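Holo prediction — 8-iodo-guanine.
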Amino acid sequence: MSQRRNEPAQLAEAAAQIIREKTGIARHDLAIILGSGWGQAATLLGEVNTTVTAAELPGFYAEDIAGHGGAITSVRIGDTAVNALVITARTHYYQGHGAAAVAHPVRTAAACGARHLVITNGCGGLNPQWTPGTPVLIRDHINLTGDSPIAGAHFVDLTDAYSPALRRLAHQVDPTLAEGVYVQFRGPHYETPAEVKMAGILGGDLVGMSTSLETIAAREAQMDVLGISLVTNHAAGMSDVALSHEDVLAAGAAAAPRIARLLADIVMNIARSIDA
Ligand code: 8IG
């Protein structure tokens, strides 16, 4: 293996080592990435152990975007023995640091021992019935970035990339949860109405700027992935109103308590299945 290919793994191991030291926990079983609108969930998940800020960890970009935090918090899930990493220190592809930087938090979680990854995001919805505030399970994705976090001849299978078993655990919590195909665009601009129409013709239901590259990295690391989107806006052209980041944040804030409860219940269900 070339030196270049090893670099992401070494950087993730360096960050994991700091997390082990600062938390005093040798192994975290589960990781949860909190996207736009999902921030309140952290307080419901369980007892907080330690928070490590992005600035303390190699490979993380302590960015300053409204609605995006920047830390990794170690939480013991409910009454289980499962230790989870709650990650708000996410790097987006549109920040321009490349796909490996996007994958780094996922690889760090894997290096901490995590075999399960819950990825959340805020996104636009194509189904007009999905009003802002609707949570949707990700069934599959279409990666329109044209990029991959994987370098070299490592041909990772993406069949069932979004674990059917974890989706069943989520449906136990809420059987009415819709499922959809997530389409990752590069961003940071929102789509044109024509691009949203294209996404629909391709088989997409949700449009966003994250998750797909993270899921690819997680599957490379053989983690089981659950993806949950919060539809914070009708995708461009699907309603009369123009898109604004402020409206997106407001929809996220309005849905926050409900969504936090849902995520906490789903994570608890996953933690119990790990604990069992
Ligand atoms: I929140 O409508 C959120 N993120 N690409 N399109 C894309 N990303 C988003 C959208 C959206 N809403």
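READOUT: The mean pLDDT is 92.
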